[in-house]
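ping. complex inputs:
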Amino acid sequence: MAPPKPLEALVSLLIPPACRDEVLGDLYERYTGPSRYILDAAGVVPLVLLSRIRRTVDAEILLMETFALYLSFLAAGRYGTPGLLLAPWGLVRLAIPAAATLLALAIADAYADPAKSSPWQLVRAAAFAVACAFLSQAVLRAGAPEFALPLWVMTFGSAVSMLLLCGLRMLFPPLPLRLIGGNARKSRQDELPAHRGTWKWLALGGAVLILWGSVRHAHLVWPLPVVMTVCLVVFYQRHKRGG
Amino acid sequence: MAKADSLGQFEQLVLTAILTLREDAYGVTIQAKVAELARPRAVSLGAVYVTLDRLEDKGMVTSWLSDPTPERGGRAKRCYRLEALGERALQESAVTAKRIWDTISAVWGKEWAREWGKRWGKETG
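pong. complex structure:
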C-alpha cells in the first residue's frame, strides 16, 4: 500500500528538506490508510520543524539579530515619528515587526536546503523575513490598527533591518545547514575562528551604544546602521580574500 | 572521555531501543521498540525524532543514510547507532535505576517488591 501522490506531495512540502527523505520514507512504511497517514503527518511535521529550528538557530546570533532589528525600528520611530516612543504601547508596536522578522528568519533557516546552500540564500532568507514583517503589519491594520506602525516607520525600519541582517548573516553565517549524518553537530565555538567571538561582543557593544544614542540624539545617530553595514561588508570581503 | 550528561526517561528509552535494535535502528523500528518499552504510555513518532536529534547533538548517537528501498517508496532510511558517550550514559542510568529499585525494596520490603513487579507485569500485558 502507498499513500496517494498528492497527499504525499503536500506533506513533503511541509517537512524541512534536511530530513525530508527519511521522514517521508518512515511515513510511507507506516501507511495503512489516508486518515492514519494524515494523523501521523500532523503529529510529526510540527515536532520535526521545531527540532530543525532548534538545530539551526544560534542563541548568540539570534540575540544580535534581535538587537539589530529592534534598534532599526526604534531609530525609525524616533526619527520618523518622535512621539511614537512615548505613545501608549509605543515600544511594543515597534517590537512587533522585529518579532515577526525573527520568527520568519528562524523558519526560513529551518527550511533551507543544505544541498543547495549559496550566499544568495542568506539574502533571500533576510528578504523573506522582512516581507513577513510587512505582512504582520497588514494583518494588524485589518485586526488591530492601534498596534500598526506608520508606513514611513515600517519602510525605513525595514530597509535598515535588511541591511543589518544581510551584514550580520554574511559575517556570522547561520549554523551549517548540512545533513547531520555520521557526526554530531559541533558547538558554535568549534566552528568559528577565535577572532569571531571577539567581533560578536564588539557588535553587541556597538549596538548598545547606538541604542543609547538613537534615543537621545537620533539626528546624529541614524546613519550609523548604514555605516556599520558597510564596515561589515568590507570586513567580510577582506576575510573572504584572506586579508 | 567527555562526561556523559544525565538522561531523561524518554532519552533512556530511545537509547535502549537503539542498543537492542543494533543495525536495524531507524525511525519506525525505534518508535515501535520505545512504545513496547514504555507501555501502556503511547509514544509518537514525532517525539522520537526530536529525541534522536537531541541525542545526536549531545554526541550520544550518530546517524547515517542507508540505501533507498522500494518498501519505503524508494526513499532512504536514517539509521542510528550508539556512541561511547551514549553507552556510558545508558550504563549510568541503569545503575541509578537499579539503586532506586533496591532502596525502595529495602524500605517497603522484598515481598512488596515481588508483588508489585508481578502486578505491573500483568497491567502492562
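The mean pLDDT of chain A is 78.
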